[in-house]
Amino acid sequence: xxxxxxxxxxxxxxxxxxxxxxxxxxxxxxxxxxxxxxxxxxxxxxxxxxxxxxxxx
Length: 57
Prior knowledge:
It is a single chain. This protein has a two-stranded parallel ribbon. It is mostly helical. It has helices spanning about 10-25, 40-55; strands at about 1-5, 30-35. The chain has one domain. Strand 1, helix 1 (about 10-25) and strand 2 (about 30-35) form a beta-alpha-beta unit.
C-alpha cells in the first residue's frame, strides 16, 4: 500500500486504518508514504515496479 502524506482526498489516518485492519487479518502489507498529494510520483512508480518484479518473478 502507498499513500501521500499531503493527500486531502483520502486522509492519512483513514489509509493507515485500512492498512492496520488488513494486517490484523493476517495480510503481509508493505506500506510506503510519499511526500505528495492524491497523485503519483516517480519514486512510487519505481517502488511498484520493483514490487511487481519481485512478486511476478
